[in-house]
Amino acid sequence: MATVKLTALEVDGITGKQTQRDLTADELTQRTKDKAEAVAQEAEATARIDARTSALAKLAKLGLTQAEIEAL
Fold this sequence. Notes:
By secondary structure, this protein is α+β, with helices and mostly antiparallel strands.
């Protein structure tokens, strides 16, 4: 399996010169932290959606109409 090398592309806004370089250890660490945070946020969002869906189903099972549920 091929190893993927992560790089950064730096562009000088004045000259337009582009320089590609390997990510530093700090940048790789930050990237790992950012990915983990994104996964955690996605899990939180999914949990909130699941909880809301469950709550709405329970209200409907109790006999509330869709209009009554929406009014809450």
